[in-house]
Protein 1
Amino acid sequence: GQQLNQSPQSMFIQEGEDVSMNCTSSSIFNTWLWYKQDPGEGPVLLIALYKAGELTSNGRLTAQFGITRKDSFLNISASIPSDVGIYFCAGLKAGSARQLTFGSGTQLTVLP
Amino acid sequence: DSGVTQTPKHLITATGQRVTLRCSPRSGDLSVYWYQQSLDQGLQFLIQYYNGEERAKGNILERFSAQQFPDLHSELNLSSLELGDSALYFCASSDSTDRGVNTEAFFGQGTRLTVV
């Protein structure tokens, strides 16, 4: 079963607002990934984090790899309507042969 | 476009039947992963193949099996289908196994399986 606790489960925000979501785990991960999934599509990789403390940006998206290696957060600044979708965190452990453990997802709705 | 191709996009079949889902990884990727996404379970890892060999198994039922062919495409076989097998099945690929090299997995668009 899943080992990542992702929150919040859903968010309703106004266009232009900033958004923050996070994932926590009782286990240590070597890599944290953030994906976005649109309806009927596969998850699309947004940001990859490889080192504890790493802060990485991709346009309006910023993600951080927690110092304890047990958590990560994703921020979206100045949200726009196309940000709507489900955001998943995923973690990768050493020696795990690269199978990802996924969070349960955050459903983001952006209101005009 | 992730470069990972899955067919078919949709599949409707009856209980007890058997289906085969196909995945072509990104060019050059040796690893293929299969995931199941259902409403109540989220994304669950099923199985991984690397260069034709099974490398890791997750929550895969005995009724399910997979293989990776010499041209690196993979097939996921689901047999004795039950209503609860209805889900989205995703294939992902990456360019290495876990040998200290950090690489990301890229997902296909998925196959939506409906068992009626």
Protein 2
Amino acid sequence: GEDVEQSLFLSVREGDSSVINCTYTDSSSTYLYWYKQEPGAGLQLLTYIFSNMDMKQDQRLTVLLNKKDKHLSLRIADTQTGDSAIYFCAETGGYGGATNKLIFGTGTLLAVQP
Amino acid sequence: EADIYQTPRYLVIGTGKKITLECSQTMGHDKMYWYQQDPGMELHLIHYSYGVNSTEKGDLSSESTVSRIRTEHFPLTLESARPSHTSQYLCASSEGRSVQYFGAGTRLSVL
């Protein structure tokens, strides 16, 4: 079945770049997403990329997609303490295409040290 | 900024009570979803709707039920709450197959 995997934890110093990685199994994914969840809150859409793109940049965020390796990454430049949160990778699988359901990774906890 | 609202934000309730979690969106989106997020952080789809009078079960089996009588409203009901229902419930909506926007979630604790 469809599966999305992420590392569970990343710790960086304030001002450094953070790179959060994600791998997925469904080669027919249409969209791939990054969501941010702060403690006690819902999911905030950070950015997304169409499956026919390799890269997308939005201010401090850069998304890289390697379709051959089914690998997605999120780079946060100049990481701030306010970036501390859980980051979820998600994809709309081909099977889920009609429903548009999201398949989520387990989430990566980003801890930013001052 | 997404216009999707969930109430209540927090709910503590005793076993056996009937509860309804509300979700409303003002964007006119046709599709709506309920996800359950367990303490281990993983999210799983429990219900979705293509539009009015359409409801389907998701990947994760759930004892909850949903209804979609109006486009903007997608409430979730538990007839008899149990401690195993303790979780965070997240509602989302999308226009067709485009981006899903999430509400702030309802954190449910059943004692």
Protein 3
Amino acid sequence: DAKTTQPNSMESNEEEPVHLPCNHSTISGTDYIHWYRQLPSQGPEYVIHGLTSNVNNRMASLAIAEDRKSSTLILHRATLRDAAVYYCIPVPTGNQFYFGTGTSLTVIP
Amino acid sequence: EPEVTQTPSHQVTQMGQEVILRCVPISNHLYFYWYRQILGQKVEFLVSFYNNEISEKSEIFDDQFSVERPDGSNFTLKIRSTKLEDSAMYFCASSGSFGTGELFFGEGSRLTVL
């Protein structure tokens, strides 16, 4: 399984963009890059995923480096509700989702 | 919006007792998972299930644990002879595809072993 490196914690001011980085230098060519988040006292929640191209959805954008060794989750305008632990998970096709320790995002009002 | 539901939300049991945690995955999903999260720690994979059999399990998922899909809707996790260290949140998840799609998680069942 590809190893990931994420900052333990980050802070953002409310209504400002947040860029959450993830290094996954051992990722293989067919691994999808998934991002999940876990709000306090809740189960993990899907945010976004992609393979090679940048991806956008209603929650966030995912920017994937050309060599795929890193990716960045972009929250365009952080809200208080975005305070959570964010997990970057490389997922081989036909394999499991293994959660690391993630990045704890604090949003400052 | 479809969701994964889990029962009970909280169960307290005595050490040595058997516990069954129940999950109703999203109806057209085929892949099912159990994870656990000990308080303050990371989310740990326990087991995945497809086509009425275990497809992968972690080292945590030993003989004390078992999973079953007793009917077309429920997916259960049984923990035999519970230990203090089994106290955790247990999350069920389901997916319509394997590895490439989104995992949908339930709200979790909190197990407290006394």
Protein 4
Amino acid sequence: GAVVSQHPSWVICKSGTSVKIECRSLDFQATTMFWYRQFPKQSLMLMATSNEGSKATYEQGVEKDKFLINHASLTLSTLTVTSAHPEDSSFYICSASDPLNTIYFGEGSWLTVV
Amino acid sequence: LAKTTQPISMDSYEGQEVNITCSHNNIATNDYITWYQQFPSQGPRFIIQGYKTKVTNEVASLFIPADRKSSTLSLPRVSLSDTAVYYCLVGGFMDTGRRALTFGSGTRLQVQP
């Protein structure tokens, strides 16, 4: 199946700093990508829909100024957690739809804010 | 968005067939039904997707009745490595392609030796 890759797999950052997570579709172009977060033993929660060349659409309750999403090309979307705090520590997962309309997910990125 | 309901957990033994049923009573006409498998600390892995009737691939079968208000994922001869959380999702389209999938709680499958 299609491959969606995230980088980094895990990252530790200091409270107050910003951290960027990349999501790439390796073998197809994705007009739209999706960002989720998942806390331990919970299900995935949709954060935002990333649209290539336009602004992201955020779900209710997700701060757009804190979670900056950029989708500058058809194969890359980035999520930047700005001024990170310990409560932002979570598992962040992206996904994208391939040309056959199947949604694939990345491997996920663990963020720990200390 | 169509809501899905599936059992919270299931237990099975190695070599058995496992069937996980999901209900989605308010599925829309253009919604697909997709099942994913998730291991701890990994992103969900695509298993199978269908629209109606039966779909089969190398790892599973998906049965969808005519009214499409439910679906059943069938895993033949499970092994210990199939212990995971299984998610049933339904989702359709928007102008730019597939609409985002909304996750329910999933079914935690535990396979015993």
